Structure prediction request, 198 residues.
Amino acid sequence: MWALDIYEGSPTPIAAFLSIAPKISISANISRVSIYGSYGATLQQIFFFCSIASMILGALAAMAQTKVKRLLAHSSIGHVGYIRTGFSCGTIEGIQSLLIGIFIYASMTIDAFAIVSALRQTRVKYIADLGALAKTNPISAITFSITMFSYAGIPLLAGFCSKFYLFFAALGCRAYFLAPVGVLTSVIGRWAPESCHE
Prediction:
C-alpha cells in the first residue's frame, strides 16, 4: 500500500497535509452532489461497502504497525471509512454528521502530526520510543495520549462525539450493519498501539 510509504518517507508537515486535504476535498465535493442533487441507491451501496472495508482494513492493519507514522497512516484509512458512513446514509443527518466528523478528524490529525513533528529532534520513530516521552516531555505525552484516545473514540473526547454522530446517522437511515461494524473496528483500533508495545 503506497500510503504507508508516503507517510513514512515524506516530511511530517507533508504527511499531515496528505492526511487531511484529500478527505476534506472529497467530502466537500460529494456533499455538494448530495445537497444540490442526489446519488442513486447503487452509489449509496458502494459507499456502504467501501466504508466497511476501510474501517476493517484500517483497524486490522494498524495492529501490526510499530512505527508512529505508519500507525497514523492506517488510522487515516480507518477514518475514511468512518467518514464514508455519512455518505452511506444519503440524508441531511448523514451530511451533518460527516461535516462534524471531518472537522474533528482534521483537528485530531493536525494535533497528532504537530506533536510528531515537534518530537523529530528526539528521533521518535517507533511507537516504543513514546514510552519515555512522559519523563522527557510530559506536556507532549499528555497531549499525544489524549489525541490518540480521541482517535480511538474513548467517551467524552471529540473522537467519540464524531463517531457517535456518524453511527447515529447510520442507524437513522437503517444501515443497521454499518454502526456495529464501526463500533467493533473502533474497539479493535483501540488495542492497535498497545499490541505493538508487547
About this structure: The CA atoms of residues 21 and 155 lie 27 Å apart. The two ends are 25 Å apart (CA to CA).
